[in-house]
From TrEMBL:
InterPro entries: Bact_Sigma-Reg, PPM-type-like_dom_sf, PPM-type_phosphatase-like_dom. This is Phosphoserine phosphatase RsbP. The keyword Hydrolase applies. The keyword Zinc does not apply. Keywords: Hydrolase. GO terms for molecular function: phosphatase activity. It comes from the Bacteria. It comes from Acinetobacter bouvetii. Residues 126-320 form the PPM-type phosphatase domain.
């Protein structure tokens, strides 16, 4: 931490410095040369005069209450009296510094959310098909993710994943997945590669996922699930929805992950839809009842996510147009 050399005479300066042996003394003229994220301690009058951007604790005389208030309005983190430092001031400094860093992290969250959304796949023109998506984090950052990309002129690969938990760690894993496609050509291969990397890194998170490959000419769909709920659903006009249930483990739990691959053909005007479990949250009841309501609204294209959700929501739909 920095201690900015006062420009006025402070009779108690040596006593204060002896109570703070870990600080580095710097001069006002050199402030621009130092790290702007490091906590600084300074005389209140110097702070009011120069108004630098370093996070600062100001020191004042007992009769300078107005100056302390002005410094607080300008952004000072705390105000102390030269002759009345807190007991164990270094401990106080560490707490103030930690709180400052937490606040800075919170201020960065909107920018981080914007950057995360920039990693979502761009709209894509496909022969015979339309991709429809919904992405709604419960807070700034999401642990749910989807992606899709062409692996040939007539095939598209896709997945939807749900990272356990919430917050920055879960969202970082979605970014990791967005950056990792490898050379996978099948759903099984993609899931096995992601699982291997997750187990190797020993991250205490697991990921559920549905991944698939769709042939845009033959309409053949090959897909695999890694412990994902709710299951994928196929909707066709005037037909009962097909619930594609599977039994499998999520990614990140075991090296010996068994991945089964399934096949089906999408008929005309069929919709293949996968959702994260956050899509169940808007509905009341137990898990089965929530799922029934979700299926009803997806079938009738009436699903609407609330403005404020308790869990992240991601939905990916592949609609055959003819």
């Amino acid at each position: 931490m920095y201690f900015i050399q006062p420009t006025r005479n402070i009779p108690y300066l040596d006593q204060v410095l002896s109570a703070l042996p870990g600080v580095q003394m710097i001069h006002i003229d050199d402030i621009d040369l130092y790290d702007p994220t490091i906590l600084a301690i300074a005389d209140v009058q110097d702070y009011l005069t120069h108004q630098w951007s370093l996070p600062t604790i100001v020191l004042a005389f007992e009769n300078e209450g107005t100056a302390l208030a002005q410094a607080w309005e300008l952004g000072a983190l705390a105000g102390w009296i030269w002759t009345k430092l807190p007991v164990n001031p270094e401990d106080f400094l560490l707490k103030i510094d930690a709180q400052y860093k937490r606040n800075q992290d919170s201020r960065d969250l909107p920018s981080a959310a914007y950057l995360q959304k920039c990693l979502l796949p761009n709209p894509i023109e496909l022969m015979n098909y339309k991709v429809e998506t919904l992405f709604q984090p419960s807070a700034y950052l999401s642990g749910d993710w989807y992606d899709y990309w062409k692996i040939s002129d007539k095939e598209i690969m896709f997945y939807l994943a749900d990272v356990s938990g919430h917050g920055v760690t879960s969202s970082l894993l979605t970014s990791w997945m967005a950056a990792f496609h490898g050379r996978s050509k099948t759903p099984r291969e993609l899931i096995k590669k992601l699982n291997g990397m997750l187990v190797q890194e020993n991250i205490e998170k697991h990921i559920t996922m549905i991944a698939g490959v769709l042939n845009l000419e033959t309409h053949q769909l090959r897909w695999s699930s890694a412990g994902h709920y709710p299951p994928a659903i196929i909707f066709e006009p005037n037909q009962v929805p097909k619930i594609l249930n599977t039994s499998s483990f999520p990614l990140g739990l075991t090296e010996d992950l068994e991945v089964e691959e399934f096949e089906c053909v999408l008929n005309r005007h069929a919709r293949f839809i996968i959702c994260s479990d956050g899509a169940l949250e808007p509905f009341d009841g137990g898990l089965n009842e929530q799922f029934e309501k979700l299926v009803f609204h997806l079938q009738n294209q009436s699903f609407q996510a609330p403005e404020h959700v308790a869990d992240d929501i991601a939905i990916l739909s592949l609609r055959r147009m003819n």
